[in-house]
Amino acid sequence: MTIDYYYMDGSPPCAVVTLTITALGIEDKVKTRRVDEMNDEHLKDDYLKINPQHTAPVIVDDGFALSESRAIAKYLVAKYGNNKYYPQAIKTRALVDQRLDFDIGTLYPKLIDIYFSKILKTPLTEAQLKKMDDALNILNVYLKENKFVVGAELTLADFSLGVCVALMEAFEISIEKYTNIVRWLTLVKSTLPKFEEIITKTTNDGKKLIEIMSKSQ
């Protein structure tokens, strides 16, 4: 059975799903389908039937369609990885979910601020930089006594937050003063298969999209 995986170039959420597929070693089960956002493929009727949100990533697994990167990652590890990277222990799983919520609600929006600042060719405001610093400090505290984001084992929280922080760094946000984050990100890069390759491609594709979008402003 083939999983259809719809992705967009330069998308951080798609990078999370690609990392999950790679870490689970299920690339042979996946057929990738690029969605060309610049040509409005995400707004076509066939795509909207799969995902009314007109976003990516999306997977279709044996007729079952699912969007949102974190939901997709959880589904994939449950079905194809025996819940590897998403522990079944109630309290540990709750912490993984909390860290994932922290990412989507607190840290990831700061990455989007960076993207828009590049598109609009305007520097981040002092208020934006302060909020980014606050968010990174929180992550730094989470990592103070933990090898990974939740305890001693790699989880989906490391996938998602790792993508976010690595892309911040790639877009010239210094993380040097957050020593726990620096130590952890180095570990994630060396532990997750093809992490740096996936981040490099996401960064390069993102920069191309930013250049195209900035010209239309």
TrEMBL record:
Query: Which GO molecular function annotation, any one, does this entry have?
Result: glutathione transferase activity
Asked whether the UniProt record includes Transmembrane helix among its keywords, one would answer no
Q: Which residues cross the membrane?
A: none
Q: Which GO terms describe its biological process?
A: glutathione metabolic process
Q: CDD domains in the record, alphabetically? A: GST_C_Delta_Epsilon
Q: Which InterPro entries match?
A: Glutathione-S-Trfase_C-like, Glutathione-S-Trfase_C_sf, Glutathione_S-Trfase, Glutathione_S-Trfase_N, GST_C, Thioredoxin-like_sf
Q: Which keywords, in A-to-Z order, does the entry hold? A: Transferase
Q: Which residues form the GST N-terminal domain?
A: 1-84
Domain GST C-terminal, chain residue ranges per copy: 89-216
Keyword Transferase on entry = yes
Query: What is the protein's quaternary organization?
Result: Homodimer.
Against PANTHER family, the record matches this protein to:
GLUTATHIONE S TRANSFERASE D10, ISOFORM A-RELATED
Record protein name field? Glutathione S-transferase 1-1
Where does this protein come from, organism-wise? Answer: Papilio xuthus (Asian swallowtail butterfly)
Q: Which gene encodes it?
A: LOC106115229
